[in-house]
Amino acid sequence: MHCDPSYEARKLKKNYQHTLAFVFAVEELNKDFHLFPNVSLGFQLYEDGHNMRKNHEATVSILSERNWTPSVLPLPPSAYDLYYSYGRPSYDSLVSKSPKDKTIPNYHCHGQSKLAAVIGALTSESTTEMSNMLQSSKVPQICYGSSDPILSDKVQFPFLYRTVPSDLAQFTGIIKLILYFRWTWIGVVFTGDDNGEKFLQAMEGEMQRNGVCAEFILKMYSMKNLAIKTIHKMEDALTKSSANVTLFYGSTSHFFHLQVLSRNLETRGKIWIITAQWDFTAGPRPDKPDSNPFQGALSFAVHKAEIPEFQDFLRSVNPKKYPNDILMKHFWGFAFDCVMPPPYSIPIYGKRKCTERERLDSLPVSDFDMNTVWQSYSIYNAVYALHTFLKMVRFNNSAGEEVYFDENGDSTATYDIFNWIVLPNISLVSVKVGGVKHRGQDFFFDDAKVVWKERLGQHPRSICSESCLPGFRKVAEKGRPSCCFKCVRCLPGQISNQIDMDRCETCKEDYYPNEARNKCVPKNLSFLSYDEPLGIALASSAFSFSFLAIFLLGTFIKHRDSPIVKANNRDLSYILLSSLMLCFLCSLLFIGRPRMETCLLRQTAFGLIFSVSLATVLAKTITVVLAFNATKPGNRMRKWLRPRAAHGFVLLCSLIQAGICVVWLGTSPPFPDFDTRSEPGYIILECNEGSVTAFYCILAYMGLLALVSFTVAFLARKLPDSFNEAKFITFSMLVFCSVWASFIPSYLSTKGKYMVAVEIFSILASSAGLLGCIFFPKCYIILLRPDQNSREHFTRKLNSGVQQL
């Protein structure tokens, strides 16, 4: 691999515009009598060559006796000195001192000028070194090139200001650019110096917080220190990487070598993101449009604007105009490949002599850019910011842009984003496509202006795994970065409404997931209403059975003096028919939207009314047994056949159930509630029973009455009675117990309105069983067989039964 032998000269040519921008700004200010009345600005140029020793010597010289004249402009009386520390390669011939030129710190024997500020330096190391020395004398320092975030620390650098933004804004902008295109799988190459390590530390944290992964991270040193193994490693990473985006951080000196290296690699399908530290125009020119691996790259650059009349000034610059500028004479020889007159250079045979009237606009852009570069623009603003109190500086420069410093001494400068394109004539041009402002918080980008590589098309992708669509969530693959994942459908009841969600979210109680599980939709209210077929059928049945009970009650009242009505205590028959009618009607409390009053009444009314019915059935059964035994001579049970005894028994049994209901309502009464989990897509409006124990106590008590009635009726089913109800009561209790025995498992296995429907059906079925089994045979005789409803028939049947016993 070939390395340019004139690299040091190339760097001088590229950076000399910074010095000329400084001179231009000073001359412009000295011509403005309104801005600085009765004051002239002069300056002294120092170069440190990125050498800490020279930087230290230059800073000491600034604070000490000066025995040589300014480099370019003479210092008039009462002038302010600007000490511009220029970072460039070391050329010992530029500055020479005799032994008598000694520097004594903080000692000045000439009072003709006054130090206003120091502008410099280009690198963070040089800037920090100067600041540590200058702050002891409280000399303001304006940095024009270093964007190291540490320089924002006003405790450590109280007199340091800078006209470039902090790197933190650039790092934030890089992350926002990556997220803008949803590039989550990238490669990273950085320089193996302190700045590179700081960059990697900051970027790794930002990438991790924003879900961006690095397929590879390469540390790059200067090419002369690169081992063969490292070169092969870089080649493998760049060619075999599945990531289509690679982030570069480093200076032009590093990327110059990397650009030459990557030209020989199969990397033309990659997109490069370049930080502001690199100068694209300093790299080698491509042989053909598609041979430059950085075509279509996106680069960050410190914002700049064209300085008015600066190009005219550059066209007028030559060594004849500034005969005392030693640096210009060396630049001139390098830039125009000519020999300056002695003592600035040694004549070389065959090499032309410089006329010193060559024009800078005749040089190629790779040697000297006639357009304002960002460092020059930053220096220009630094000169215009001179003030005793820099914190109060706020002005509009000649380019029409506002310049001021924030509380950390940082400029409000921003970063621009450029898209680099190789034209058919093999020239490399840039187009501004976006930028970041306000410390990186405001990001803007114009897709329409970007020209991507042809093989990548519009909006190239750089991901490890395909995005998970809404309705799915990401699940990390074991042993791989977090950007490599598989997609799993959200569980029932959960949704994900964005792509690449790490987890699914549970819908609120009154919402449920749609079929795609990508949004929550309101649940429908569910309760057993009178508007649906099931509610209509149950309500119609309740009314029909209640009317039937009323008809039977009317029939019994009409034939109250007939033997069949009088045979088994007609008062108990009236009570039973009335309670059954109410049993049918109480089922209507279970239909309709649950409210506080219906929730309080439905179970208590059901339990109390059914207890009356069962107690009445039990009293009728006991009456049959007592009536048969009372016919035997000498039996004392006749007194229990009085109606008052039967009525008291019914009342006692009913009061026990009423007591249970009172305790229930007094401790934990039922209340309207809703169930959002039982049925997906529905909010079930229901009555919460409050105390489940009390509810089952009511059922248990009714079960006890039914069991006792069934037992007594079963034992008395064969007693000789023409109108013996025992066998009908036995069958009715069998039906009743069967219905409620099947009710419990059915009730517990259903949800929502169907659970309510099960209870209503059990109420109607058990009540209809009692009504039909006990009263239908009697109504059949009353209405259709009146011949059997006589005392003679009753006496005949009774005698026949006694003879059989």
How would you write the strand order of the largest sheet? 7-6-8-9-10-13-14-15
Structural class: alpha/beta
How much beta, percentage-wise? 15-25%
CATH third-tier fold name of the largest domain = Rhopdopsin 7-helix transmembrane proteins
CATH architecture of the largest domain: Up-down Bundle
Residue windows where pLDDT falls under 50 for at least 5 positions: 1-5, 66-81, 86-101, 801-805
Overall pLDDT: 79
The end-to-end distance, rounded to whole angstroms, is 128 Å
Specify Rg, calculated over alpha carbons.
Answer: 51 Å
Regarding CATH, which class of the largest domain? Mainly Alpha
How many domain regions? 4
Q: Helicity, in percent?
A: 40-55%
The biggest sheet, with number of strands, parallel, antiparallel or mixed sense and barrel status, is: 8 strands, mixed
Q: Oligomeric state of the chains?
A: single chain
Overall 3D form: rod-shaped
